[in-house]
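Suppose a colleague, Dr. K., hands you the sequence of a protein chain of 652 amino acids and asks what its three-dimensional shape might be. Before reaching for any lab equipment, you can write down a predicted structure in C-alpha cell form. Begin with the sequence itself:
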Amino acid sequence: MKTFSSFFLLELQRLFSKRNIIIFILFFLLCQYLVQVRINEYKLKLENQEKFQAIERTNIEKFMNYSQYGTFGFRLLFTPPAISTFFSNSAVISELTAFVDSGIRLRIYNSLLGKNLFSDKSGGFKDLAGIILLFGSLIALYFGYDSFRHKEYIKFISSFSSTKRAYFSILFSRLILLNMNFLFVISSALLLTRLNGLRFSGDEYVNFSVFIFLTILLLCFFLVMGTIISFSKSNINAIVATISIWFAFAFLAPGVITNIVYQRASLIESDFKVEMDKLRQLMNFESRAIDKQGRFDLKNANTDPERQLAESYWKKEFKEIQNLEKKRTAETIKNTNTYQIFSILSPATFYIAMNNEISGLGYGSFIEFYQYTQELREEFIIYYLQKTFYSDDKKVESFVKHDENVFISRSRIPSIFFFGAILNLFYLAVLFHFSFSRFRKYIFGLPDQRYQELKELEMELMTGKTVVLLTADNGISGQLYNFFTGQDDGFDGVVMLDEEDMAADGNREDFLYICRPEEIPGDIKVKDFVRFFSRLLYMSKRENAQLYLDLQLDTVESKLFSQLTDAQKGRILMAAAINKMSAIYMIHDMARGMPVDFVMEIIDILKRMKEDGAAVLYLSRDVLFASKIADRLTYLLTDPTLPKRIDTFQSM
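The predicted structure, expressed as C-alpha cells, is then:
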C-alpha cells in the first residue's frame, strides 16, 4: 500500500500542472454551461406544457358536436423526465406530439414513425453526455498514452519497487484520478439541476448512477487503449494511432451501427403505406355505411341501424387499424433490440445506446409513447361512440379530464444492459491483460539486431568495486537490465558477483538502474519527485532535511524537471540511488555531456557507493572517464565510428 500511495501522490501532482488545470477548468465550465442551457430548455418545455394544456382545454369549445370532436380529436404531448437535461441533444427524440382521433388523419411532416426513427441524428455532442464522449475519450487516451511513454524513467522507478508494481500503481493511479475529475464534473452538473429547482425521481437517481458507471467504463477503456499506444516506438505512429482509435470508437463505430440498423429498418412498413392502409379501412367503412344507411345524419345517430354500423366499425375496421399499428410497433421493437444488441460491441456505442434510454428520450420511450397513444385512441373511440350513438348530450365535454393528453416519459434501463456491462467489462479485462503484456515487452524487449555475443558475456562484479563496460550500443543496457531483473531469456553468459555465478543459481541481488537525467518526464516537480522516493525508501524527516541541504533543493524544489539543467537532474537521481543503498548499481553513462564540476561529483558518489559495499556497473563510451573510475574495465568494440564491428569481448 505504501508503494501505491507513493505513486498515486506523484501522479496526482503531475495531473495538477498549470496546463492541465487550465484544460480542466475550461472543460468544467463548458459542461456546466451546456447543462444550464439544457435546464433552461427543459423549464421552457414545462412552461409550454402548461400552455399546451390550456390551449387544448380552449379548443374543446370550438366543436359543435361529438362528431366534429371525434374527427379532429386532440393532441398528445410528449414530456421528457428531468434527467434528460444531461442527454437532450445526443438522444433520439427532441420534440414529439401525436393526434388522437376517432380514425386517422394523413399528416405530411417530419415523422419519427417507421424507418425515420432510426436515421442518423445531427449534432449529438452539445450536452453533458456528448461532451464526455467527445472530449473525455480524447483526454483519457492522452492520459493513458502519457503513462508509460518515458521508457527509461519507468525502468528507473521500477527499480525502487518492481516492474509489476510500477505498472499497476501508475495505471490505477491515473484511472482513479481521471475518473475522480469527471465524477466531480458530473456531480457539479447534478448539483446545478438541484439549484435550478429540478428534482429527480428515485428511479432517475438509480439510473443516474448507471450513467456514472457507463462514464467510468468509457474512460477506463480509452485510458487503457492509450497505454497500449504509449508502447509504440515512434511518436508519429503513436499520434496516428491515437487519432485513429478516437475516431474509430467515438465516431465511426456509432455511425456504422446506426447505418446498419437504419438499413434494416427498411423492413418496417413505411409510414406512408401504413397511413394509406388505415385510410383504406376508413374508406371501406364509409362505402359500407353508405350502402346500408346512406349519408350519415347526426339526427339519426341514436337509431339502432346507426349504432349497429358504429359497432361494426369498432369490431372490424378499427381492429384492422389497430393490427396495423401493432405490427408497426412490433417491427420497431425488433429493430430497437437489434440496435441495442449491436451497441454492446464497444464501450462507446454501449455508452450512447444506454444513455439514450436513461435520458427518457430513446427508442424505448418512443415505443412506450406510441403504445400509449394507441391505448388512448381506443379509449377515445369508446368515448366517442358512447357520446355520439348512445347519449343525447348536446354540449361537447372533453375526453381529457386530468393530464391524459400529456405523456410523461420515464428514464429506463434496457434489459440488455446487464449482458452488455458484463461483455464490456470482459473487453476491459482483456485490454488490461494485453496492455500489461505489451508493457513487459516494451520494458524487457530488445532490438531485433541485438548483439548475440552478449549472451556469452563473461563479467565479474565485485563488492566495493566499479566495473566499466565500454560500449556505444544502447541495446546492451537493455540486455543487462533484463539480466539483473531476472528477465534474461536466452542469456548464456556468466556474470559473477564475488566469485559466485548469478545466472547459474538464479539469484538476483538487490539492484538499481539509474537512467540518464534527460529521461525523467519534464512535467514532474522536483519536490514531488523527492517526496516520491523518500516515501518509498522510508526516509525520516531528518534524512529528508539533510537531503534538501546537500542538494540545495530550496531554490529549485518548486521547479519542473524540464526547467532544471542536466547536472541538477543528475544530482537528484544520484541522491535517490545513494539512499536506496542497493547491492548492485547499473548506471547508464551519467557523466556524458555533463559539466566538469558534476563529473567530479559523480566520481565522489561512485566512491561512496563502493564504500557502502555496493557493486557498480557503469556503461559508458568515454574511455578517458572510464579509466578514472574503473577498478575493472570490460569493453565491447562496437563504436559506430569503427568501419566494422569486432565480435570479441576483451577484459582488462
